Amino acid sequence: MIDGTDESTRFISRRDLLKLAGTSACAACLLPLTGCENLWKRQPAIAVDRWEKGVCRFCGTGCGVTIGLRDNKVVDVKGDEEAHNRGRLCIKGLATRDILYSPSRLLHPMIRKNGDLERATWNEAMELVAQRFKDAIETFGPDSVAFYGSGQLLTEESYTANKLFKAGIGTNNVDGNPRLCMASAVTGYTSTFGKDEPPGCYEDIDSADCFFITGSNTLECHPIIWERIQDRKRSRPGATIIVVDPRRTFTTLHADLHLQIIPGTDVALYNAMMQVFVERHFIDRDMVDRYLSFQEGDRPRSFVDFKTHLARYSPERVADICGVSAAAIREAAFLFASSKATMSLWTMGLNQQVQGTASNRLVCAMHLLTGQFGRPGATPFSLTGQPNACGGVRDTGSLAHALPNGRVVTNPTHRQEMEDLWNVPRGRLSAKPGLHAVALFDAMARGSVKCCLIMCTNPGQTLPDLNAYRRGMEKAFLVVVDAFHPTETTIVADVVLPAALWVEKEGVKGNGERRYHLSPKLVDPPSEARSDLEILVELADRLGQGQLITARTPQEVWDEWRKISAHSEYNFEGITYERLKQERGLLWPCPSETHPGTKRRYVPGEDPLATGNGRFDFYGKPDRRATIWLDHQEDLPDPCTPEFPLLLNTGRILEHWHTMTITGQTPTLRSIHPDYLEIHPYDAHVLTIRDGEPVIVTSRRGEIELRARVTEIVRPGTVFATMHSARHLVNQATQAAHDPFSKQPAYKRCAVSVRRKAV
Amino acid sequence: MSRLVFILLTILMEVGSCASSTQAAGTGDMVTSVAVFRAIGIAAALVGIALLFLVQYVYRSRLSHGMYHRLLLIGVFLLPLATTWSTSATVMEGTKSVEACNSCHVMHPFVNDMTNPTSPTLAARHYRNNWIAKDQCYACHVTYGITGTLEGKRDGFRHWVHYITNTYPDPIRFVGSYDNANCLACHQQTEKWSRVNSHRALLGEFATDRIACITCHGPPHPLPKERRAQQP
Fold first, then answer.
1. Which of A77, A99, A121 is the last residue before a domain boundary?
2. What interface predicted TM-score (ipTM) does this complex get?
3. Which of A219, A267, A693, A744 is least surrounded by CB atoms within 10 angstroms?
4. Quick one: closest CA in B to A75, which residue?
């Protein structure tokens, strides 16, 4: 043993040791095949074959995503680190990995026969649609048919539908859900700058020192933008956040100053803030002298007139109208005007009001008057609700009054330009503005619109004063193209066509900051579903308009469209599909393929369309000056009375989107219910309502049942319900009164009464 | 024999006091576990060498055969064993520190960002608000329990192998899914966390790491393009 000759007592022979070592080495190499890779490194919770870049399906923030595919199915979605959202996604964005495989996907066409929707072939369904449209056009004229689109359609789809109906069929009855969402922002921008779309961009958040967030619950409705605002605050704690909101939302919890105003009193508040600007000499005189003009109605006004107008809005007087203290108004005005760079952000709280346009342009006016404009961080900026309301609908002019790139149907020069660009005979485009959303469904109820094609939206739930307009939908021949069934709209349709969703089709989207980015096709649509563009092209062929719709693939349509844009101040000819495949989107104007895109409009040196050596060039206006409007706070419709003593405000929550047709089916989100009515403890006490009790909310138009949530989030005298749920349609109570310029309905305010449900 | 024990004890005390004074000079009055482990290791090594020298060359003739072998056993096996244990304990403890992570140059942008008082990243906010008192890198990159420690050490070892063999990708990226348990251990008990509906609805997804906290609340560190921009 000592000399090593005793073989029998050895623990292991040399040969065995070598064998063992060899086997161990092989085992280590084969580790990945055995499913034990995690012994060497961490593994992803969801296994993915490949990752592709894309764009989120949901809101107007337009976050970049990377989409994980396995066996040609979407299995995972992450934020794209290279995109503006820096890898972040909200909970809805994360849920997009499940949306394609929802149990409520519509898989084949359906036709209503004997009162019920029955399965049909594509040929049968399209034949019927074309025949009914042809009959209506021949018998009652082109204005008897209509298209009702969506800010969720791809740009190519909205553009094609707009061209087909306006230049082909010859009707301006082309509108869509952006009318319910963004129309007041459009009229606000166009009346101030002459051109639609925000002058700034998301990057301004990184430089702003004061955020004036008004009519926006940014934390819940645009969470990724909110995180960017928070990043700025974290880097520079001195940055201030002012929030104007009738509710004490999650956003307001992070605010330095919260003005909890009475719904609908924005115009008075902004006028009072501007009065403080004048009083405390915060007015940028150079702006007033060289870059601004003043107007009231049709009449031009001077700066002196403007000051006289504001004199009626002292903070002390407005405090009573708005229900906040004069000191708070003065402080907000001081913070706004004195910061190095102030950025305003707003959305539905401003837009969905009877004075939506006025509110929008007054916020722009506050920036222009104080010179908080056109520098990094200093800009007015409207947030958008839908992923392609800006690019798809506003830029393509797919609204009843509009033509592409900021043109309007009532302007003969604009019509002629578009007739030439679309290569149709002069006079083809109708000079009569079409029917805007509410008027369109009213016309259906009255019988003057016979057929309507509805794509990618759910007006059966989203229209205000729903009971009145649902009658129109039931009466007209309704063709609904949607990815989901049943929805509140498909159940009243005569023909339902299955649409491709998200990455089942290719196309360009334009987000809230003028960024065009490409959403790629990665998987095939399920069963018989088709892209909305294919459906529109086929409809055009069947209506005999095939020669007009020559671009038939997404890229062909985009190429036609970007070349048309070159004949306008929207010029994005340089944004090609090739560039979009490489980059995370580009901000227009972008006139050439080497142009990097434009962050700030109207600034010579930054905006390729701005000329001269001055600070600004407001080229959208004939005198190249932006307009400050003299708007008064008006009495609002549907006032409170002893019978209807409370004001109902509607809105949304973080976890759900629009009418929940998508998020309501997602495994991760469907357990979150939005069926409640927020009521202040004071009102609940007076009405003897306890937390969690079922209550009936009654307005002058209808009533709904919800469960009371007694909370101090709402002001005394106001109640709040979400617009999401189809189980309790809050829009049966809301009013159809709308802004006179934008025609956008006032969802944010109507008088109601609340009572305990009798058991 | 008593003299042998006296000499060895003297060496041990000298080394111990020397180690603790060095440590005290470096980081104030706090004696860390790493310093204690290191001192024990060095002492054991020095005592072992001294013991072997004395036993072999000075006291051999005075020792009984049995005692000679027992002392050799201590010098050759037991004291080196203590040194080995102390070395691994020192490495295991010492690599928890931010300095240890920062000793590889690829980590500089991460540590620079974490210690930057105006950075908005998750790491920087946890650092500057003292939400994690020490070993800030390690605290979030190791999961609780023995498995977590093993995974953490395995990751560190793998990183080290990649670093010294120059086989790491550029830019470096976190491999696999981040363990939400690290976030939830502190945050889940707070009212601020539980008042968010989706947090409660997504508990199952968090537990399986199919949804990461940092997707909504990140990024924890500067992104590759931001790190590139920082580099001179």
1. A99
2. 0.86
3. A693
4. B210
